[in-house]
Design brief:
272 residues; alpha+beta; five-stranded antiparallel beta sheet; globular
């Protein structure tokens, strides 16, 4: 049963079903991790944002922008303008398709929410419940049961053999992490195998993932691993996307794996 407490930072009342204070965003020390949330249906933009945060969704990587009129190609989003709520999709060519525009916030949120779940399900991720377990046939379960008898011994042997390989790959993968600048004010950050670009849109800057660096010879444009305030960009390691990347990798309680999410798998040419 849900309970309430006072947020130690702002004094607002917080439910045990909320991972963060809805007023100031501080972590809720009394959050009940066992609270059943799989049937929760967000009806407002704030509830949708909370739903995604509780499940550790890296929204910029997933190309979903909640509460934001995002104008770059390849994006789904919802925002409020006056008394209307607008649900949109930006196609690969930059053309915008409006899914809904009107005064019904619950309907607008549900439209984007269903699309969000659909994109997750296509990638085998079920934030609304683990469908993978319930959909397995009896033969699949029996096969899994038999394989589990062999797994412990094999895992020990293979782990010892491959631990050195994985460690070496990790070093190579992150060897060239850092900042890169094209010299015209554009700043990129390389992390692992991914590129991120800093966009100062309407004086509101943020990092988001891009497909590639604009030059094949990107090593020539390296400006170092440490952030410099003179560049006029936010420190990548202080950004929301950095926090999301590391929350997903470090959270042992998460049942959702978004690390392999590839936005290129989305059909960006259709209207929805």
């Amino acid at each position: 049963m849900a309970s309430t407490s006072k947020c130690p930072f702002c004094g607002s009342t917080v439910s045990s079903t909320n991972k963060h204070c809805l007023t100031c965003g501080a972590p809720n020390e009394n959050y009940d991790k066992d609270t059943e949330r799989t049937i929760f249906l967000p009806k407002t933009i704030e509830e949708l944002r909370e739903y995604c945060a509780e499940r550790g969704m890296p929204l910029p990587r997933m190309r979903f922008f909640i509460g934001e009129d995002y104008r770059q190609p390849k994006a789904f989003g919802i925002y409020q303008e006056g008394n209307e709520f607008i649900v949109y999709k930006n196609k690969a060519n930059g053309q915008r398709a409006i899914r809904y525009q009107g005064p019904d916030e619950a309907f607008a949120v549900n439209e984007l929410f269903l699309k969000l779940l659909d994109e997750c399900h296509k990638r085998g991720i079920y934030p609304d419940g683990d469908a993978s377990n319930s959909s397995r046939s009896g033969k699949q379960r029996q096969s899994i049961k038999k394989s589990r008898l062999l797994v412990p011994i094999l895992v020990i042997i293979i782990s010892l053999l491959l631990s050195g390989i994985f460690a070496a790959f990790s070093i190579i993968q992150h060897r060239k992490d850092g900042y890169y600048s094209t010299g015209d004010g554009d700043v990129y950050y390389h992390y692992g195998t991914d590129w991120y670009y800093y966009d100062d849109y309407n004086d509101y800057g943020y990092w988001y993932e891009v497909d590639e660096f604009p030059s094949d010879n990107y090593e020539y444009y390296s400006v170092g691993e440490e952030w410099n305030s003179d560049w006029g960009v936010e420190d990548f390691k202080d950004s929301d996307i950095w926090e999301e990347l590391h929350e997903n990798k470090s959270s042992s309680s998460s049942n959702y794996d978004y690390d392999s999410w590839d936005s290129g798998d989305t059909d960006w040419d259709s209207d929805w």
